[in-house]
Design a protein that fits this description.
113 residues, mainly alpha, 6 helices, 83% helix
Length: 113
């Protein structure tokens, strides 16, 4: 549990400053073996990883989707951030649910395979 909380915190903070693909390329080879050693399912950890990267794209100060949305819609950045806070809190709550209830992220793969 502590490793998952730490990984979530690290990935959320890095997601604020880096693009999701860069984080994935650099950190997945480092964190995936550690997660496997703790007995965390690789699919579950991958979903947590991608979920963190998605949240990071809308998080200030350098969220790429945040800037793209503001430039396309013409909404000012402070207005977007104020409107995004409830959704961001909901996404973080969902991230914690997926993190600590693995059945949420593993149910569909279990049905397919």
């Amino acid at each position: 549990m502590a490793f998952l909380l730490l990984a979530n915190a690290i990935l959320l903070v890095l997601g604020m400053f880096l693009e999701g693909n860069a984080i994935l390329i650099v950190l997945s080879p480092l964190l995936a073996p550690v997660a496997a050693q703790f007995g965390i399912d690789p699919v579950h950890f991958g979903i947590i990883f991608i979920f963190n990267a998605a949240i990071g794209t809308i998080t200030p100060p350098l969220g790429t989707v945040m800037f793209t949305t503001c430039s396309i819609t013409g909404v000012k950045l402070p207005d977007f951030i104020r409107a995004m806070v409830p959704f961001w809190l909901l996404l973080v709550a969902m991230l914690l649910l997926v993190t600590f209830i693995p059945a949420l992220s593993l149910a569909l793969p279990a049905m397919v395979f």
